[in-house]
Write the C-alpha cells for this entry.
Amino acid sequence: MQVNMGKVPSAVIPVMMSLAALILVAVQVGIHGLAAERDEGAIGHLWQLLMAAQLPVIGFFAFRWLGRAPRQAGTVLLVQALAWAAAVLPVRLLGW
C-alpha cells in the first residue's frame, strides 16, 4: 500500500514536537547562555512535556502503520527517532 506519510498526523506531529523542543533549547541558550540554571524554568518544563508527549503519538503511529505499510512506517519511525535524538543531544551534551 502506498501512503503519503506527510499527510498522516501521527507521522508528522512527533517530528514537529522535537523541532519545537530543539528551538526551546536554542532560546534557552540565547537567553541564558550555556551555563546551567538552578531552576529549569518554564522552558525546561515545556521541553520535557514536548519530549514525553510525543512518545504515545509515536507508539500509536507504529501500532497503526507498521502492519499496513512497513517500509514507509519504518522510514518515518527512523526520522522520528533522529528528530528526537537531535532534541535530546544538546541537552545531554550541556549537562542540563
Remarks:
- The chain has a mean pLDDT of 93.
- Helices lie at 9-32, 41-65, 70-93.
- Residues 45 and 58 are 20 Å apart (CA to CA).
